[in-house]
Amino acid sequence: MAKFKSFINILRRKFFFYVVWPLAFTIFSLKPIDEKLILFAFSKNYTQMPDNLMGLYEYLKNKGYNCKIMQAPQNALKRILFDIVFQKYYATCKCVFITDNFDQLYAHKPRKGTKVIQLWHACGAFKKWGYSTLDLAWGGSREDMLRFPMHNTYTDVFVSAESVIPCYAEAFGCDEKIIKALGTPRTDVYFDEIFVASGREKLLKAFPEIGNRKIILYAPTFRGNSPEESYNDQPLDYSLLKRTLGKDYALVLKLHPFTAKKYRLSDELKKEFGDFVFDASSSVAIETALCAADYLVADYSSLIFEYALLDKPMIFYAYDLEKYKKDRSFYFEYESFVPGRIVMSNEEIVASILSNSCQQEKIKEFRNRYMSACDGRCIEKIAEYAVR
User: What angle, rounded to 10 degrees, do the helices at 378-387 and 51-62 form?
Assistant: First the structure.
């Protein structure tokens, strides 16, 4: 039965990918391109417009462009209609922005005069994705990727620095010539001194119990072989951390969006550690949390690229590093790449914070190498490029 269902699903996908979507696009292409129409497309997995799109949407809308939000619906029947409507607008738009995979774009090339711009949701290049993961446990099926190509219609890809261009070319299976270091739109806020300075105040409004204590932000990425099967471990020893750090520090959790709801801080843990551990996963924006933090405890999350712009210390809690290397892998050697001390235990986290053993010079070098195109003007630069 499972094989039969898989067979039917492949036939259905083939029908839409190779027949319905191209046919609809061809019919709607009989109309001229609307030089004012800009699409912002993203999948059903997002609860709101991705942050790399928000600033561009507002900027271009204020410039008088017809900015249309195209989010795929959850309902399967509604999605069929959405896919046809998307092809209608895709066939006549000046530009379409995405920040992740978007299957409806990959069935055919855009018209001449239409830009398809990928603004990948992560800065820099850290853990592998896309075509780079085909032979890894985390990656998709090579057969499936060949059957339904991805990332094959981009006219432009924008990245945070020239040093990561080869990584994106490998991940997307594209020519390096279409990849340009114009920066990452959502990083513009980190160059706004007022916004950065307000981070702690905003966090304290959500958690006034923190008081005058310094903030340790724990922001791990998810585990698992796919977003659908994602999970979070619970490797922190709250008892040890509270006992050794609780007087001067507060621990703020910011879990990955894939796992935030499923692995939120339980009522039992809140009762025992609620004056030390605060779950900001759903209540505080990540950029606010990063600005508020005095320390970032990370693992393999690309948030480290943004945090490097703030020039504050990082600790890398890589307790499952060997497994992660095997399942997902990295574009660079982890041990020499990350701009901070690598720890394998809660005791080492405590020791690193108490000794203030940050690697400030390495953070600066890291920022210059991997975030050099982020200058506070990324939204303006990318928007003006898109509509010229």
Answer: 60
Confidence of residue 135 (pLDDT cuts 50, 70, 90): confident
Q: What is the mean pLDDT of the segment spanning 274-293?
A: 94
Question: Cα–Cα distance between 98 and 71 in angstroms, integer?
Answer: 10
Work out the pLDDT band at 227, boundaries 50, 70, 90.
low
Answer whether 169's CB lies under 8 Å from 360's CB. no
| 215 vs 249: CA distance, rounded Å | 6
Give the chain's domains with CATH numbers.
17-184+375-387 (3.40.50.11820), 189-370 (3.40.50.12580)
Helices marked H in the chain — which ranges? 2-15, 21-28, 51-62, 76-90, 142-147, 165-172, 193-197, 199-206, 238-245, 267-273, 286-292, 303-308, 321-327, 334-337, 346-355, 360-370, 378-387
Residue position matching structure tokens 């850290």: 126
Strands 66-71 and 95-98: unpaired
> What Å distances lie between residue 340 and 193, 296, 350, 366, CA to CA?
24, 10, 14, 10
Which residue has 């003006």 as its token pair? 384
- Judging by DSSP bridges, how do beta strands 37-42 and 95-98 pair with one another? parallel
Residue type, 10: I
Helix, strand, or coil (residue 341)? strand
Listed in sequence order, the DSSP H helices in 91-176 are 142-147, 165-172
CB 282 within 8 A of CB 264: yes
Kindly state the tokens that stand for 292.
């508020």
